[in-house]
Design brief:
11 helices, 15 strands, alpha+beta, L-amino peptidase D-ALA esterase/amidase, nine-stranded mixed sheet, about 30% helix, Ubiquitin-like (UB roll), homodimer
């Protein structure tokens, strides 16, 4: 039984949030700034990149997160404000200050996120103009515009909204994300913003976000490059009027499931929109000797360029899959490995399963969505990573991006 | 001062070796089998893939290496004989037995290598016919034909020959290699064959090969996919008539340098011929806190798809380079990092170096060969990895290969 159901909209689906997307002029000809505002102080949770090089906004958000209070998140696309030294941090602070001033809220409740090119000075005149415009453009209906304004090489916006009941009151979770390249599962990938009108205690909110990220954003990969700006923020403003959720609340599991579902829905949209991707692939590994082995094997398959290009070619080249398992570091006994494309057994005990014609095998990979299912038959651990194929367009997009 | 000089030819440049390339018919329309024979028993050294999935020939070679004696190496392209279960191992043994029979040498002195598609049964009728033909085609001039016959997606053959003096006698090292995809530095990448007419004690030969591989084949990368068939073999037949080299021989350093030079020359040819590559890039990392950090940072840069595609686009997108350093696991302080394209300083203390126009930066990347030089300014360790750019052709080639 589902403890939640889908709802319409995105970050402004929960009560008490407004948002907008406006053109600050950093990316010519399109909206490139989003503003998300909670009508009342919200508790906030955050998860950030583990990259040792970190964008200026990551430093700012980490610091602000100590108070666990948020009113607004301002996001710009087109410039990552990373590797800009102390000036970058000053610029991120100024973005927050300008937003706080325009909204009339406390500066320490404003969070900032930037995405785009690394190492370019922030065009603060454009940013300042964008913030003034954004503060005047907020609306309950603005979630979709915000979701579009944060995109870079993405081809579609990524939104989610779910509805569930807590203490007999209707509550919602909304979300938006961006990301198509520099996507690698390692603690919060790309930018993701979740909102809820449920009241949630700060520690519990952080726990719910961290757990959800682990099985969603940390389980997708496009190209194995981990961004230095990856950030997921989760605001809970309590507008639903429930008794604040903690881990001892009777309906805590309902909330946790809903958060996981929302995060996973956004993460899958990111993997599906991988740069140049034509196929969405779920890689399941089971029978591993340990959880770490299951994850390593699934991730090696999902990150293998040779595997991903073979998927693009609809080539049932399972040799590249078992090769990737072999170098993943996971324990593996060649003579035990089974591999299936969806339900179709292609490798049985480490060797090509008989009676499969190349045409049959190709058909399995001809679909837009399929799964690769590896059974190592060594233990009971399992894991799943979501990814996409790699087409010549990936290289084209990324050789043309930036300059 | 160079202790060696270049010579003409490849694996048959040293005295006492014959080779050939013939068409066994595994790859239609071209030569796909090479045979390399020493006129006398040679000592032999070998280094193999660390992939936990290993081709049948790796198992056979590892076992035969215990005797440290070799007369012949038979190589087929077009079928990797990997993941073929016990039948694969039987087929590899049969290849050795057929070769030994045709040459009239002891079976345990015959080594086998296979490269090509994983998981396809070996077409042993074609292989047997090829071996008979190869045994009749051997010649001193056959090194070049052998070097061409072992290629798969390579665009050019890869040969080397060096000359040096030991005990007042002229000695040579010759070599050939194949490899263009599934190239990742982790103990012997692709197939490489080295020969020498120097007399070398078995233990010393293994030490020289292992050391040379570490700084050559283990320092190149094309796509980060580590093959399950990677093998480097080194035969020393003593035809030069020197006193057998050991680590205490006065001229041991001469030999070691020559082996390193030969291995590096072959490795660089492999990196340069990376599938779809248009540029050859040397990634130098210095100032690292440890040797492991230097290696991790250089390897992360060289393996980053975003970095490699930006090189193809001649886009001076140094943000992707510092981002890769950040997730490499190496200790890094953003505010200390310097990055140069060749001599041109583009990042100074973690920020864009001023006074460089985009045109100047692009010019640096417009060359066919350039270096990326990262100084972490944290310590004294350094490392170098050789790689290539990634073009849309990489994905095209690998989505079309196989079926």
């Amino acid at each position: 039984m589902n403890l939640w159901k889908h709802a319409r909209g995105g970050v402004t689906a929960p009560a008490g949030y407004r948002a907008c997307g406006v053109a600050a002029g950093v990316k010519p000809g399109r909206n490139d700034m989003a503003l998300l505002v909670s009508d009342a102080d919200a508790t906030v949770a955050g998860v950030f990149t583990t990259n040792r090089i970190q964008g200026a906004h990551v430093k700012l958000c980490r610091e602000r997160l100590k108070d666990r209070r948020a009113r607004a998140v301002v996001v710009n696309a087109g410039n990552a404000n990373a590797c800009n030294g102390p000036q970058g941090v000053r610029d991120a602070r100024r973005m927050a200050a300008l937003t706080a001033g325009a909204l009339g809220v406390a500066e320490r409740t404003v969070f900032v996120c930037s995405t785009g090119v690394i190492g370019r000075p922030m065009p603060m005149d454009k940013i300042a103009k964008g913030i003034r415009l954004a503060a005047q453009s907020l609306s309950r209906a603005g979630g979709a515009a915000a979701a579009r304004a944060i995109l870079t090489t993405d081809t579609t916006d990524k939104q989610v909204a779910l509805e569930f009941s807590i203490d007999g009151r209707r509550a919602r979770i909304g979300g938006m994300a961006k990301g198509a390249g520099m996507i690698e599962p390692s603690l919060a990938t790309m930018l993701a913003f979740l909102t809820t009108d449920a009241a949630v205690a700060a520690g519990a909110l952080q726990a719910a976000l961290a757990a959800a990220v682990e099985h969603s954003f940390n389980r997708i990969t496009v190209d194995g490059d981990q961004s230095c700006n990856d950030t997921a923020l989760f605001l809970a403003n309590g507008a639903a009027g429930n008794r604040p959720l903690t881990r001892t609340h009777r309906q805590w599991p309902v909330f946790v499931r809903a958060v996981e579902a929302a995060a996973l829905a956004l993460a899958l949209k990111v993997a599906e929109d991988g740069e140049g991707a034509t196929k969405f692939v779920t890689v399941n590994v089971r029978g591993a000797a340990s959880a770490a082995d299951a994850h390593a094997a699934a991730r090696a398959i999902a990150n293998s360029l040779l595997v991903k290009t073979s998927w693009f070619g609809e080539d049932p080249n399972w040799g590249r899959i078992i090769d990737a398992v072999g170098y993943s570091g996971a324990r593996v006994a060649e003579e035990k490995v089974d591999i299936r494309f969806d339900e179709l057994l292609v490798v049985r005990r480490g060797r090509m399963a008989s009676a499969k014609s190349p045409a049959e095998l190709r058909k399995a990979l001809g679909k837009k969505r399929f799964s690769v299912n590896v059974d190592l038959r060594l233990g009971r651990a399992a894991d799943t990573v979501y990814t996409c194929d790699c087409s010549p367009d990936y290289a084209r997009i990324n050789s043309e991006y930036t300059t």
